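Hi F.,

I've been meaning to write this up properly since the lab meeting, where we talked about keeping a consistent format for the predictions we share between groups. The idea is simple: the sequence comes first, exactly as it goes in, then the structure tokens exactly as they come out, then a line or two of notes. No screenshots and no reformatting. I'm using this chain as the first example so we have something concrete to point to.
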Amino acid sequence: MFTSTKKTQPGRSAAAVTTIAALTLALSACGGVVNDASAGGETTTLTVATAAAIGTPNAAVQDWYLDRVEEKSEGTIKFDRTAPESLCKAAEVVECVRDGRADLGVTVPDYTPQYFATLSVSGIPFVGQNSQAITQALYDIHTEYEPAVTALEGHGLHYVSAWPVGRFLFGSKQPIDNVEDIAGLQTRASGPVIQEMLTKAGANIAAITASETYEAAERGVVTTVGGAMDFAVNYKLMELLPYWSDPGIGQYSTFGMWFSKEAYDGLDDKAKAVVDEVTEELNAGAGVQAFNEVAAGQCEQLAAASTVKTVEQWDPKATQDWQERIGNDAEAAWLKVANGFNLENPEALLQEYKTGLENHADAQYEDATANCVANFTKK
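Output, unedited:
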């Protein structure tokens, strides 16, 4: 007996491998020994397009998932792991998955909000603080709430997960201690809701991807960055921006992972069972755990950087002031976005999200960013 290994080319779906397996079975009737997929002789290789930079917490979540699927499938599912943004730029990853250049995509949904209005609900400021509760609530919505399932499948995508990128921090050339300090800043931020809230506070928004931010800050195109801790550390913004502060918004954006629907549908039942099992495990806490293990190390690098002067939490009164100024504007902004992208009954989905957060409010979660800010010592 021998093992026959087939590899899909970039853009070929798992359906192609299934077709090959069927042909080899037919040919086996003419003589010779051929192992089919059910006998463990066929390997399906799926191409991954990613925007998760190496060494980031988001890459840790991605790698945990890929490793676990390969392990649980006993090698019958393998991933061709292309380098970050080598196959497709961050804002184009979803298009790569939709048009068949990749079978699995990992990127920030807010870069292409026309496809992910159902995920941008997690970007409403001050609503979500617990990353695990958000991850699980979004998973529930995209596997159980029919309008969200239908919306994503209508874009040719099969949901795996979306997890918060970390608490929102300001990185700046001058201290930002309250909402008044935001006025007039040239600010990089992603996500339609947080962008509008910053605009209302007087900021001028530059909507650029994470990998483009360092050059923009170096050239003075932006003076302030709104983002997670990996912006300071992995994207090296701590070299240029000495002041970092947590305004209390909490989780504000997600990284997401999706199969192309064609690739997922093309898997045989055994392979689908493995993928579904690992997907559930990821969303139940393994993903956030992998994220936090790397995020904790980021804090050490941030604290050791000679260029960083402060990492501070806003005074609770300053946080409350901004929250009160926003009021219902953030939810209204998200509803406007969702309606603009023809999401069915966005008010109902918003309620589903809030209910999900309540259902998972007791999810165990320790925030690496919050711990970092709390323990940071002024230099």
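Notes:
The radius of gyration is 22 Å.
Confidence is low (pLDDT under 50) at residues 1-40.

If this format works for you, I'll send the rest the same way.

G.
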